[in-house]
Write a structure and sequence with these properties.
Keywords: Membrane, Transmembrane, Transmembrane helix. The chain is an alpha+beta fold and 146 residues long. It has two helices and five strands.
Length: 146
Amino acid sequence: MSAGIILLIIAFIMGAVGIIFTGTALGLGISAKRKREICTQPVQAVIADLERSDNISMEGIRTVSWFPVYEYFIRGKRIRKRSHLGSAQQDFYIGQEVTIYVNPENANEFYCPQEKTGKLRVIFLLIGILLIIMAAAAGILRMVLL
């Protein structure tokens, strides 16, 4: 295989992965905005539990994520829900009181402004943009070499 073809393949793969990362960042932002728009009812909740999730990557790297479990009452009904967002550190502690925002139409749908979602979006966006720039540079380099 020629160097030009190899650079084209590398540029394509980096560009595709960059688009996936950028799209994920945008999707997370849209999802967070939607949650803020529809989850408008403030409710006092308590961190009832912290669920630990152990993961091992294909490379054998072990990571741990902590997911807060919120317990709150709405219209006299007790609800206990685990967050969809975990973090590498225990950002909350059991018994901690937090204000969450619940969807008035669906009490099971909520968001907690104290969860750190912004950093994740920024990291995905930066990685995505960096990969797209690298793909463009590889494409330009391929044109220069030919």
